[in-house]
Amino acid sequence: GLRSLRRHKWGLSMRLADFIDQNIDAIVDSAEGFARTLEPAARHLDAVVLRDHMPTILQAVALDLRSP
User: What is the pLDDT of residues 30-46, one digit of tens each?
Assistant: First the structure.
């Protein structure tokens, strides 16, 4: 029923939050690689600029997923 669906969705959110926390460096690496493909916008951006806010955003997403 609806109650078990809510528990399932909550469990999925928690697992996704854990995955983000445990793999944040790899996710940021992949996001930087993807951002480099966005030509011409990324042509002159260095790694520092491309990675600038990604860890903070991912941490905020994980925290939000853990919130009821």
Answer: 998 998 888 887 888 88
CA distance 9 to 65: 10
Q: Tell me, what amino acid is at 4? A: S
Model confidence at 10, pLDDT cuts 50, 70, 90, reads low
Q: How many residues does the chain have?
A: 68
* Angstrom distance (rounded) from CA 55 to CA 57: 5
Which residue is listed with tokens 């520092």? 48
Radius of gyration of the chain (CA): 16
Q: Which two tokens stand for residue 12?
A: 């999925």
SS3 38: coil
